[in-house]
Amino acid sequence: MTVKITTNLNSIPTATNGVYATGNGPLTEVLHAGSTTLPSLESAAPGTVLVRMLAAPINPSDTLAVRGTYPAPMVKTSDPAKSIPGLEGAGEVVAIVDGSDTDLQLGDIVIPTDAIPGSWRRHIVLPAKNLIRIKSADDKREKLTSAALASLTVNPTTAYRLLKDFVTLKAGDVVVQNGGNSAVGQFVAQLGKLWGVKVVSIVRDRPDFDAYAAKLKAQGAFDVVRPEHVLKYFTEDHKDLYVPLAFETIGGPAGAVLLQVVSPGGTVVSYGSMSGQPIPVSAMALLSRGVILRGFWLTAWKETATREQYQEMLDDLVGYIAAGKIETPEFNEIVVPAGEISKQESDKIVQEVAKAGAEFAGKKQLLVFQ
Questions:
Q1: Edge to edge, what strands does the sheet with 267-270 contain?
Q2: Fewer CB atoms inside 10 A, N or C side of the chain?
Q3: What burial class does residue 158 get, using C-beta atoms within 10 Å of its C-beta: 0-12 exposed, 13-18 middle, 19+ buried?
């Protein structure tokens, strides 16, 4: 059966460039840049959408999935040796299979209602019901760059939910977080300041600690503290601060100290485990101080949230970015060309991708598709 396709393209692509994996292992050994096949729109269901990806951030969950140490999905292609990593990104609607009641239009900038499996490529094919518009074709707001929109799905949304969903915070309340230099941590600090909450960020020592701390404070953090100073900071130097909420993303002793510094009856929310170590929980903290330890996983939130709740959150975040009230982290752009990719070009792209998560890297990596 022939389907009708609305498109602004001269021809519908059947293959597209991107970064793919040929198995699990070290990034420089299993990643390659080149062409992979796309599902055909000619036999697709009504409402199927072809999206030309603008950009896709490289997150820790992506690289851990490639290494085989994190259960994030990668998309299989018609070539069983090639799988596409990537769970986040934004793109432009360039073709729609007619016959559904979708309100998406050509030129709309969209992100998925859930993680995009396989976002590290120039085109993806998804049902319209799994996409949500974040910018219409005629929206000219300058701060809504490809990088800003592509990085909406994971980090700012996690920060938003952490601050909204666990404790009713009042102006002047203090939130303490480890991993304060992470993308989520930076968004927590910015949103906290915007909403009148004081965010104390714990950041490991580094050669330029004072300058880096000043940068985080200018961005929104109330204060920046080295891990070895945290206990003294809250129990001696600033013991009058009310700290009803803490965010934990490292695990091990770094998480345990938050149970000690949060105020009695406070809540510690674990949303990651960068160290891979369990948090040694003090029974005394739970019993005598009434501290609550909870977990948060954005994927689980999305499974129960309504489309309206998701849209409201995205509208808030897009509005803040457009107004210059919050800013996205700095990115190092890795360009994936549209034409044939040579072995030399592929190796160069993979080397840049492999820098993601490097200690004190300062910038996140961002795939940009020509």
A1: 223-225, 198-202, 174-178, 245-248, 267-270, 292-295
A2: N
A3: buried
Please report, in angstroms and rounded to a whole number, the separation of the first and last CA atoms in the chain: 33
Asked if residue 127 lies in contact with residue 50, where contact means CB atoms within 8 angstroms, the answer is no
Q: Residues 169-192: pLDDT tens digits?
A: 999 999 999 999 998 999 999 999
Closest residue by Cα to residue 262 from 288, 236, 283, 291? 291
d(CA 314, CA 199): 22
Q: Which domain holds residue 286?
A: 167-295
Reply yes or no on whether the pLDDT at 1 is more than 70. no
For residue 21, give the nearest of 77, 83, 67, 69 by alpha carbon: 83
Helix/strand/coil percentages in the chain, nearest 5: 30, 25, 45
- Could you tell me if residue 176 is inside a domain? yes
Give ∠ CA 116-117-121 in degrees, rounded to 5.
85
CATH of the domain at 183: 3.40.50.720
Q: What is the CATH number of the domain that holds 92?
A: 3.90.180.10
Amino acid at the residue 130: N
This prediction's pTM? 0.87
Overall domain count for the chain? 2
Look-up of token digits 């999935």: 65
Residues 290 and 189 in one domain: yes
> 20, 70, 212, 233: which one is catalytic?
70
